[in-house]
Amino acid sequence: LLPAVSLWYSGQLLNIVQRAVDSQNLDTKYVVKIAAGHLACRLGNSFLQVSRTTCRRHLDIHINTHFKAHIVHAHTRLDCPTFEDSAVQRQLEEHQGAFGFSSAAWEGLIGAITTLQSVLQVVTQFSVLVNLLRQQKDGILFALLTTIPIMIQYSGVNSSISQAYAAVCSDKNFVRMYGLRDLSTQPQHRKELVAGDLGPYIYKQFQSLQKLLGPYALSFRETRRLYISRKPGWMSSLFTLCSEIPKIVFAFRAVHSPEKLPVSLASLNVIQESVSSFTLMVYQIYREAESLSENLQSIKSLYKLDEIENRVRDGNTHFLENTLSLSDGIAIEFRNVSFKYPWADAYALRNVSFKIEKGRLCVIVGVNGSGKSTILKLLARLYDPTEGQIFLDGKDIQTLVLADLRRSIAVLFQDYTHFPLSIAENIGMGDPTHAFDEDQIRQAAQLGGATEVIEKLPEGFDTYLQRPREARDMFVNLPPEMDTLFGKKIQNSGVKSRRKADRSDDTGLSGGEMQRLALSRTFMRTLNPESHIGLLLFDEPSASLDPEAEHDLFDRLRKLRGSKTMVFSSHRFGNLTRHADLILYIKMSETIESGTHDELLAKGGGYAAMYNIQARAFM
Ligand SMILES: Nc1ncnc2c1ncn2[C@@H]1O[C@H](COP(=O)(O)OP(=O)(O)OP(=O)(O)O)[C@@H](O)[C@H]1O
Questions:
Q1: Cα-based torsion angle of the residue sequence 438, 444, 449, 451 in order, rounded to the nearest 10 degrees
Q2: Measured from the CA of 366, which atom of ligand 1 is nearest?
Q3: Ligand 1 midpoint to CA 369 (Å)
Q4: With respect to CATH, is domain 323-408+532-616 assigned 3.40.50.300?
Q5: What is the pLDDT at residue 257?
Q6: Phi and psi (nearest 5°) for 351?
């Protein structure tokens, strides 16, 4: 309201001068009062302007942080079929705008507040202005002339001004925070996030890092937007010139037709000032109203993310009551299970039935696409069967508390991923409750056969296999002759340099070395003496390993297993199939044969045929 009150005081001052000229009499006390009020308004206004900038920055950081955490939470709670739903993906993508995560919602909130404020100012100023203009000759002409420079200034607002900037990130907490965010949002990690029940850990760690970093939790792009303002360009010089137009026009009119001059020349300044501020407000409202409804919609949809229902419903039967019995393994039964992936037409499994006793070692074999991995995914309850039922220790898997189920299973998927975090945390997240236990992490790396691989990397366990998007170095539009900055080599010109920077993060590990790291994470899950793992699932764990590494791995796995149930999926015969208590041979999504290696060979069916093809190569 201050600009309007200030305007009213200006009008009063003007009236006093006019009345004094007419009556040759001045009420000094009244003049002092009005002048003091006017000055106080001006001071108040300046104070508010400064406070507004400071408050807005703090508020910006807080709201941004809040929304970012909200979005990470919204992502981490989603299960696989829900996350893969294209409608849900569209909903999530809406909140990954160009200026970082929370932009749309934050812009919406600020937009709504500013618009409201502008509307209030315009209404009050308009009434004061109309009053003022009515009392002045030529007031309307002068008002029109005053709006021209404002229009020029704002029509140039969108013109692109090229800037040079550089960002190099070395803060470990910052890199880790954005690594956790990427882990929660990138689809390739979803299976491991859900199966390892990593959601709560990620959200908690993300929030504590945000708290630790405070205002520095903002990404570089967000910081740049908040702190670096545009430099005035040639447009601002034009604006300065144009703002003199009204006075020049009136000077000419004073010379040519003095009788048309306004009563008081003092009024010119007041009118110019009020019209400027009025036009500015109207223009601001016009610009903000354009995106307001869109932005408000975006805030609404941000909160709607919390309402997305997971397709895999939680059960209420506790599974971890008798943890002692879990160490003897978990019995599995598939009863007439058929399964179609949510968006597929064909069945991945058709009417599959089998039983695996507690503590057995089972190997599922079959050709590509026969459904081996799908069986493991259903056991981790990443999806629910389309038809039929799965029982664990005689209990329907759908009635079990999901967190309990996930805590009792360790799984290594065939298409495992590496998280955009340090190697230590990549392994540590096998068991989020001990994610920072260095001894256990080293032990897990040893069991996974990854120690040598890690030690040869310059940063060892602190190495990032892939740096999070927001923590990559950025050098944009720097002078061509400049070739180093902050001690780093510069690759000039924006986007291209970012791609190159990505590649430099690539540590160049081989497929087998990557697989050893993934295995270490699975071992990590089983190391803690209080862990309740009763079932170990491995999908082609040795696909990328050399024969010696494979032999060692199976040795370690057998020792680790104790009496737990272990299920493998494999194409290879030998080590595994020979020691298996049960082999399931599946073909075209159906279980065809089951039994031990010798029994299935004696049967002379599909399994025997597949075995003979591989064995013949060595005869
Ligand atoms: N996410 C998915 N969406 C749709 N269809 C899928 C998905 N994952 C697998 N399938 C399909 O389900 C079927 C069974 O796949 P699955 O991965 O279980 O086979 P597999 O026996 O493990 O194969 P491989 O030996 O190649 O690992 C295949 O036809 C496959 O194309």
A1: 0
A2: 21
A3: 5
A4: yes
A5: 64
A6: 50, 55
Ligand 1 geometric centre to CA of 347 (Å): 10
Q: How far is the CA of 415 from the centre of ligand 1 (A)?
A: 11
Q: What is the DSSP string of 458-521?
A: TTGGG-BSS--GGGS-EEES--TT--EETTEE---SHHHHHHHHHHHH-----HHHHHHHHHHH
Atom 30 (ligand 1) nearest CA: 369
Tokens of 83: 């996350």
Measured CA distances, 133 to 1, 141, 148, 275 (Å): 20, 10, 18, 10
Buried b (16+ CB within 10 A) or exposed e, 168-201: bbeeeebbbbbbbbbbbbbeebbbbbbbbbbbeb
pLDDT digits (tens, 9 = 90+) for 365-391: 988 888 999 999 999 999 999 999 999
| Stated pTM of the model | 0.73
Q: Which amino acid is present at 103?
A: S
pLDDT tens-digit map of 506-565: 557 888 888 899 999 999 988 877 778 899 999 988 777 777 878 888 888 877 788 889
- Closest residue CA from atom 25 of ligand 1: 368
ipTM over 0.95: yes
Q: Say whether 435 sits in a helix, a strand or coil.
A: coil
- Band (pLDDT 50/70/90 cuts) for residue 66 is confident
Write out the two tokens for 70: 């909200």
Predicted local confidence at residue 99, as pLDDT: 39
Does 262 have pLDDT greater than 60?
A: no
- The least confident of 7-11, 355-359, 584-588 is 7-11
Q: Residues 259-277, buried b or exposed e (16+ Cβ, 10 A)? A: eeebebeebbebbbebbbb
Domain boundaries, the chain: 2-136+262-307, 323-408+532-616, 434-505
**Rounded distance between C-alpha atoms, residue 12 and residue 38, angstroms:** 9
**What is the whole-number distance in angstroms between the Cα of residue 375 and the centre of ligand 1?**
10
Measured in Å, residue 549 CA sits from the centre of ligand 1 at 27
Calculate what percentage of the chain has a pLDDT beyond 90.
Answer: 27
Q: Which residue is closest in CA terms to ligand 1's atom 12? A: 348
Counting beta carbons within 10 angstroms of the beta carbon of residue 479, is it exposed (0 to 12), middle (13 to 18) or buried (19 or more)? Answer: exposed
Of all protein residues, the one whose alpha carbon is nearest to atom 13 of ligand 1 is 348
Mean pLDDT across 388-406: 93
Residue nearest to atom 31 of ligand 1 (CA): 369
| 279 CA → ligand 1 middle, Å | 63
Q: Is the pLDDT of residue 310 over 80?
A: yes
Which amino acid does the sequence have at 464? Y
3-state SS record for 368-408: CCCCHHHHHHHHCCCCCCCEEEEEECCEEHHHECHHHHHHC
CA of 617 to the centre of ligand 1 (A): 28
The string of pLDDT tens digits covering residues 440-495 is 999 999 998 899 989 988 889 998 888 887 887 777 777 767 777 777 666 554 33
Q: Say if CB 603 and CB 595 are below 8 A apart.
A: yes
Taking a C-beta distance cutoff of 8 angstroms, is the pair 589, 385 a contact?
no
Measured by CA distance, the residue closest to atom 11 of ligand 1 is 348
Ligand 1 atom closest to 569 (CA): 22
As a three-state string, the secondary structure of 547-568 is HHHHHHHHHHHHHHHCCCEEEE
The minimum-distance atom of ligand 1 relative to the CA of 371 is 18
**Ligand 1 site, CB within 6 A:** 341, 344, 348, 366, 368-374, 414, 569
Three-state DSSP at 409 gives strand
Q: What H or E segment, with its residue span, contains residue 358?
A: none
